[in-house]
Here is the input.
Amino acid sequence: MTNADFERIVDTTDDWIVSRTGIRERRIADNGTSTSDMAVAACQEALKMSGCSHEEIDLLILGTVTPDYRLPSCACVVQEKMGLPNAAAFDVVSACTGFINGLSIANSYIASGHAKKALIVGVEKLSAIVNYKDRNTCVLFGDGAGAAVVAGDDSGRGVLSTFMRSDGKMREMLWIKAGGTTHQYSAEHAASGADKVLMNGSEIFKVAVKEMANAVWHVMEDAGIDQSQVSLVVPHQANIRIIEALARRLKVDKDKVYINISKYGNTSAASVPIALDEAYREGRIKEGDHIVMVAFGGGLIWGSALVKW
Ligand code: UT7
Here is the structure.
């Protein structure tokens, strides 16, 4: 969907969307495509790139807030569709930080010897939970999936440090009020839009910049890596102004920060792995590079990971 498509359904303009968010297009899955279908497409590609067999994957972690079903987990659906006979599979509900939290969990499992090869996927069909009558939110979000295989070795490369934080006091800044057990689904809720994404964007903006910067500094300090050794920052793509403010706060050149928001909008848990994949395919990530991933979203939850590629 382009910004021109949104000009036809809500009171907005291409100029407002581009100048306030940096978004020009987003991908919207059709009705017949489920979250697990997108996850499978990304996971197949990741497995192929890694050279791992389906049998070798012993952990599948799926980050999403838009699972196929309330029960079972989307990870179990993906496990069946992929054919991963030896994988423990579960979802993490960490919104935009889903991929990074998944990576952090996988790293801990592998480091402790509880898993050998993990498949991590961030995937969202946000079009299913966005209110296309609310101009404050509908122009921001898109659908997508990204995946990675993580395996242990003793080369010194890999995940050097991860960081995860949350603050549930701020949960109502980005939430779906109705449909869970606190406010069970009702026709009134549906009519008022309470069963769709609600967001206080300007408040989140301020917390996002501050905490993403803190998260980046945390993993650099933990790994003993200084800023000059970081080749690329791969941030969650929620708003170009958030990414630019983050770069200024970190005192990092903008060309060391990967940005692809114009094509996809905010894809929540899928945003970091999609950006990571595109950066890699564009030759912006080389063996031995230090890469910092960082994300922030509903919960509120934020986190980061420093990887030696
Ligand atoms: O994924 C992780 C979590 N989410 C985020 O990190 C999102 C963080 N927040 C943001 O990206 C920005 O706050 C937004 C893009 C959501 C909004 O930008 P803003 O500069 O903070 O705008 P605002 O909310 O302060 O609204 C400014 C004005 C308002 O009009 P009034 O009240 O000043 O007359 C809005 O009604 O812009 C209006 N507005 C729009 N106008 C045209 C809001 N959405 C639109 C729209 N088109 N689509």
The longest helix spans residues 201-223. The radius of gyration is 19 Å. The chain has a mean pLDDT of 97.
